[in-house]
Automatic annotation (TrEMBL):
UniProt superkingdom: Bacteria
Species the sequence originates in: Streptomyces canus
Ranges that cross the membrane: 43-63, 84-106, 112-133, 145-161, 181-199
Keywords (A to Z) from UniProt: Membrane, Transmembrane, Transmembrane helix
Name of the protein described by the UniProt record: ABC transporter
């Protein structure tokens, strides 16, 4: 993979949308720093979940590319371009999550491994949804509609999921460990779905090769 490709893809990444989600997420995680009151693990978990959702909403714009239908066919396949975009944002996401965790006092911080799994799964779902939109629609900027769908899903899921499939359990709940096995399944499924949708459709591949 050439550095020219990385630079070219980096220029098309909607960094403002990603940064907006990151800033909102940090503001949410940092609320205890500016508000007085008792902070416990329950509130800490709620704040980190909200922060992870805010960052994921920014990630729904990652695959937006207004020039998708305007540029000439290129030899670089879609999965490569998508992979570069994701690779560019992964270290940013890791640094952002570290900062979000550090904003919470230690006594109010939920188990880091478990809540990190939740955040990773939420981000993966956002990226998978964006990949699905790119694969099955002609919209060059599916981010807004994908973000709206993800936000709706996040608001409804805690109320619609049956108890046996609950994901949003509290720290200390007997179902905490089992719920995070479900989060691992969500993460794996989202990664597989995103990878499958990153592959260029056969029709598009044939037309690109013919050009």
């Amino acid at each position: 993979m050439s550095s020219a490709l990385v630079v070219a893809v980096a220029r098309t990444v909607p960094w403002r949308a990603v940064a907006a989600g990151a800033v909102v997420g940090l503001l949410v995680a940092g609320l205890p720093r500016v508000l007085s009151g008792t902070l416990d693990a329950w509130l800490g978990l709620a704040l980190l979940r909200a922060a992870a959702l805010a960052f994921a909403l920014g990630l729904t714009f990652l695959l937006d590319d207004p020039a998708r239908e305007l540029t000439l066919p290129v030899p670089t396949r879609r999965w490569v371009r998508t992979g570069v975009r994701v690779a560019l944002v992964v270290p940013v996401a890791a640094l952002w999550w570290t900062a979000a965790l550090s904003l919470l006092p230690a006594h109010a911080r939920p188990p880091v491994g478990a809540v990190t799994l939740e955040a990773a799964a939420t981000a993966a779902v956002a990226l998978a949804a964006a990949a699905v939109a790119v694969r099955f629609t002609d919209e060059p900027r599916p981010g807004p509609s994908v973000a709206a769908g993800l936000l709706t899903l996040a608001l409804l899921a805690p109320h619609l999921l049956p108890t046996r499939c609950d994901l949003f359990v509290l720290v200390g709940d007997p179902g905490w460990a089992v719920a995070h096995l479900r989060w691992a399944v969500v993460l794996a499924g989202a990664v597989l779905l995103g990878a499958a949708c990153a592959v260029e459709p056969l029709r598009g591949l044939r037309s690109r090769l013919a050009s």
